[in-house]
Write a structure and sequence with these properties.
seven-stranded mixed sheet, 8 helices, SAM-dependent_MTases_sf
Length: about 210
């Protein structure tokens, strides 16, 4: 069994719903979701890095480990990441708490790469994650998300209420299962909905 599979299998056996996949992401998917990542967008936040396939792809694109913050909740994955990428900024935490933490000395990041199973999460949790991610993103920053579903994993209602736009820009047919990749940006009007700030929406959406 490849080394990357050991932490994946342990976490899958503990909670398949939290892992959200039947196998670690493949190299083709990693290449697609990181295709717009370069040193010019550093630093970068990665949500749910798992075994670190996307992390390795970003390092291969010229980023330094110090340029990457890894937000991971699974303890088996965290131990694996600490060994494999000791100089990254590893945070053992729920991605929903992202707005509460300081990363890169309050500096803003150019991209967030997400391996989280958003489709398995309630709307309130998805909004909390997006709110935290865009709090850290600088103007023009991009949130990258992949999905195994035939549609965007973030419902249109949430995108509209948070002032965001999602665009599918690639896919990985050889991944197990096949996956699509979305680029999510702020709309010109910003992150406010027609009804008020994101913080109020997060409080009001039932989970």
């Amino acid at each position: 069994m490849p080394a990357d599979l050991f932490p994946f299998v342990r976490s899958f056996m503990k909670s398949a719903r939290a892992v959200g996949a039947i196998a670690p992401s493949g190299r083709q998917l990693a290449d697609v979701i990181t295709s717009e990542i370069s040193r010019s967008v550093a630093p970068v936040i990665e949500l749910g890095p798992g075994t670190g396939v996307f992390t390795r792809a970003m390092l291969d694109r010229g980023l330094e480990q110090e340029d990457i913050a890894l937000i991971e909740y699974g303890s088996d994955f965290v131990r694996h990441l600490q060994i494999r990428f000791p100089n990254t900024h590893i945070q053992w935490m729920d991605a929903g708490w992202l707005s509460r933490v300081e990363l890169f000395g309050h500096g803003k990041t150019g991209a967030v790469v997400s391996g989280l199973p958003l489709l398995a999460m309630p709307p309130k949790k998805v909004m909390q994650i997006l709110d935290g991610a865009f709090t850290h993103l600088r103007p023009g920053g991009v949130f990258y998300q992949f999905t195994y579903a035939p549609v965007c994993p973030i419902p249109r209602a949430i995108l509209d209420r948070m002032g965001l736009k999602a665009t599918r820009f690639g896919g990985a047919c050889s991944n197990l299962p096949p996956a699509a990749v979305y680029r999510i940006r702020r709309r010109p009007a910003g992150m406010l909905s027609r009804n008020g700030p994101v913080a109020r929406l997060v409080d009001g959406v039932a989970g």
